[in-house]
Amino acid sequence: MLEKIQAEIDSYKKDGPRGGMFPERWLPTAVIICDEAFTIQNKMVNSTAKIVRGKVEEHYADRIEYAYTAEGKQLLNEKNIASL
After folding, report:
1. For 1, 33, 40, 71, which has the most beta carbons within 10 A of its beta carbon?
2. Whole-angstrom distance, CA of residue 9 vs CA of residue 28
3. Long-range contacts made by residues 72-77, C-beta under 8 angstroms, separation at least 24?
4. CA pair distance 14, 81, nearest whole angstrom
5. Residue 55: which domain range?
6. What is the pLDDT of residue 52?
7. Is 6 within 8 Å of 29 (Cβ atoms)?
8. Residues in contact with 50: Cβ distance below 8 Å, sequence separation at least 6, in sequence order
9. CB of 16 within 8 A of CB of 10?
């Protein structure tokens, strides 16, 4: 599954089949696979279906920090694999 996500991102890079459709700076440099859905019950989404940014940042603070590391920027990292 992670390989498919990486292939889709790579398809928009310079040498990919969709290269040039978006500036490469718009493509994600890190992707976090969350281990649970954002729902009203876990307060990640409010009653109008909007993401509650503060709750998400608080709950995933360690994952967000890890995403800024060299290992965390790799889609196939240990934490993303564990979340699947």
Report:
1. 33
2. 8
3. 72/30, 73/29, 73/30, 75/2, 75/5, 75/6, 75/9, 75/31, 76/2, 76/3, 76/6
4. 27
5. 2-83
6. 98
7. no
8. none
9. yes
Count how many domains the chain has: 1
Task: State the average pLDDT over residues 59-66.
Answer: 96
Q: How many angstroms separate the CA atoms of 21 and 65, rounded?
A: 30
Which residue is listed with tokens 């992670």?
2
Integer CA distances (angstroms), 17 to 7, 64, 71, in order: 11, 30, 27
Structure tokens at 62: 């360690």
Mention every residue, 6+ apart, whose C-beta is less than 8 A from residue 53.
none
Residue identified by tokens 């608080």 is: 58
pTM, rounded to two decimals: 0.81
- What whole-number distance in Å separates Cα of residue 10 and Cα of residue 21? 12
Can you read off the two tokens belonging to residue 46? 């409010």
CA 47 to chain centre: 23
